[in-house]
Amino acid sequence: MASPRQLKLGAFLMSPGHHVAAWRHQDAQADLGADFKAYVRIAQAAEDAKFDLVFLDDTLAIKDTSPQTGRFSARSAFFEPITLLSGIAAVTERIGLAGTVSTTFNEPYTLARKFASLDLISQGRAAWNLVTSNTEAEARNFGDDPHLLHADRYRRAEEFIDVVTGLWASFDDDAFAYDKASGTFYQPDKMHVLNHKGVHFSVQGPLNVRRSPQGHPVVVQAGSSAPGMELAARTAEIVFTAQQTLADAQAFYSDLKARMSRYGRDPSDLLVMPGIFPVIGRTRAEAEDKFARLQDLIDPKVGIRLLSDMIGGFDLSRYPADGPVPDLPETNGGKSRQQLLFELARKEGLSILQLARRIAGARGHWQVVGTAEDIVDQLEERFTKGGADGFNIMPPTLPGGLNDFIELALPELRRRGLFRIEYEGRTLRENLGLRRPATSRFDTGRPDAACNDSVLAAE
Amino acid sequence: MASPRQLKLGAFLMSPGHHVAAWRHQDAQADLGADFKAYVRIAQAAEDAKFDLVFLDDTLAIKDTSPQTGRFSARSAFFEPITLLSGIAAVTERIGLAGTVSTTFNEPYTLARKFASLDLISQGRAAWNLVTSNTEAEARNFGDDPHLLHADRYRRAEEFIDVVTGLWASFDDDAFAYDKASGTFYQPDKMHVLNHKGVHFSVQGPLNVRRSPQGHPVVVQAGSSAPGMELAARTAEIVFTAQQTLADAQAFYSDLKARMSRYGRDPSDLLVMPGIFPVIGRTRAEAEDKFARLQDLIDPKVGIRLLSDMIGGFDLSRYPADGPVPDLPETNGGKSRQQLLFELARKEGLSILQLARRIAGARGHWQVVGTAEDIVDQLEERFTKGGADGFNIMPPTLPGGLNDFIELALPELRRRGLFRIEYEGRTLRENLGLRRPATSRFDTGRPDAACNDSVLAAE
């Protein structure tokens, strides 16, 4: 008997919580971004709760250094994700470790190696969230050139990921003989030199790190623009996304999965995991109170600055806060996020400040305020009606908001049979139900493909 | 009463031991380069023994991919140092964590951030070993261009380290207020934007990681060429070096320390720690037997290939192994190492194979085979006669060779009062006796300077 389909869960651990005013709230540890042991406690709590993974975003800059508003932002200092996840790997056993690294400001050999090393340290629990970086503040930390245009960033990313996955196949799983008697360390026919020569990169290889028990790290993406979706359809194994409604989520889900066949991929090779910002109370009134308290802590300047960042750095503080969102030129930032926000403001007739307050928690992601039943009803609906394979939980505060989800929502998810009681496997791929990548580039790694070959061969 | 001067010790953990044939020996774990938990046990053993630090070298490539010899080399797959050290940081408390990262194939913002994050994760135990990378194999993993010339690499490194230390001073130690009531996360006058515009780099800053309890990571260097020594005199806090004799060590030590005054630095701001490859037995005969067993495991092809790599990639396998070392053109590799080896071969009239076997263990570093007394006699002599402030122990095998040093040599060092019984402090700087760097770039950070100011102010 096949076990019932269960949803996957990520814990998106943005310090010190996703709400822009989180750090001022009593449920948040304001200095979490400088306290490794506190991060470990949170990751271990997520592991005890059997989350599939913890997820860390990244920004290669302090976005806001203005003397007027910068001082109010908790996103001014935080850990670099790969070092933090490597530390967490050492004191956890089963939870997946997903970190964000940009393809725009890195070299593929360096990135492939860092994640391969994390994957080996964690014994097969690493995941790489590919981003192309979308702010000018980041570009200014890496040279004089203006930031690459959106389309150029994606062309670079397309080639980047091929180099990375090629490097991850440098050695077959059984390449290392360690044969002390004969002196054979590895078998040369199981070592593959990449010799990549492309438009953006020239990388010889091989990579100097052994493959992990899960083959190579899981590939995560978040872009929802057209080039982002195409890249995801071809290469991603998890997509974090942001849709406000079930209908939008269903449309995105079926669109993305349909694109995969073009690349010879099965829809089950990719998990769609929308972000959700849950504010949970024992009653609806308690949940609404919690949310109102967070909203009360928003400094309007900080909220409008966050909104300005999210639409690609266009400074909205120069417009009346109570006036309408102006018609803005297209910027070079994240395309899909910008469009979502403008549509939201137009549809509901929001002022700048109202829009800023609206996105202060979930930053354009799906936001649900209610009881555990309310939240699980909505998760179940998206999951069973073709809108999601799982969810990336964005706690309003850390550690408080994650504890709320674990204590209140998880028991209800389990009561309905929607979430695991124990990990199914040891590696992240095993827990996510994702297949192990081919041992070399010339092997598809699909058990069914191998079966078909045998059938054909027998005919 | 001042405590007697004691020497500092690093454990140089090259997997699976420094001898080129180490992995074939029974005292080495052949797959150490893929076994995180084994590395943790070794680091914890070094911490139990009160070593100042563990040290990881790095190469951004598999140097030897030839089907003839590559398969015999254990240096084909190993952990990336910063991920490995971040993992080790989570399960150790006091030992320093020194990792090698190249200035030639990285961006200063990325490097500053990784080490700042490791420094915070470890609560002030990180150290960065600056290298400029010296092989063509590495260059071929990072683009089409030929490898930068030696002098150009050093010019880039000079600017690189200034950007990195500038970024490490982005926030004063007390910049973060975390004041929930007023909403002030950090004090803006304690945040510094670097705005670096140089020949090689343009980096705005500030860095988005908080300073650690030791201020910033300890800066380590190893180059002994003229530009390398000048860079070290200006910026390094530890120098790993390789001299064969006491006279050479004394000359290097006094030369380097003398250069520091040009940069307004005190000789005590820099520790000279030569590498030593110790083969230790309970008797001299036992030590010599141990060494002979390792030498017997050398495959001549592998030994000559290592020698070729060490002189900058010039292929010596095309010459008769029993013939003299030919006159070679100057290459673009590590200058100081090349010169040391050629001088050694000339002075002792060694054949290619003899020279290869000679460097198969210590790779041009100082090699001592003997009892614990023999080894400690030599360490004491170098330490007390102006040749060293401490030593970087290069175990022939891992874990076996490190355990030998801990069990046999350390008790003798302690009997003579030359090494600590307990850590003096919590941070690496405290244990090394290095001063904490200034809290901002405009403060010298010297307690005596501050005192002088007070005296002047009182006059």
From TrEMBL, chains A, B:
Keywords: Flavoprotein, FMN, Monooxygenase, Oxidoreductase. FMN binds at D58, T100, H150, Y154, S224, S225. It comes from Arboricoccus pini. Pfam families: Bac_luciferase. Belongs to the NtaA/SnaA/DszA monooxygenase family. GO terms for molecular function: monooxygenase activity; oxidoreductase activity, acting on paired donors, with incorporation or reduction of molecular oxygen. This is FMN-dependent oxidoreductase, nitrilotriacetate monooxygenase family. It comes from the Bacteria. Residues 21-389 form the Luciferase-like domain.
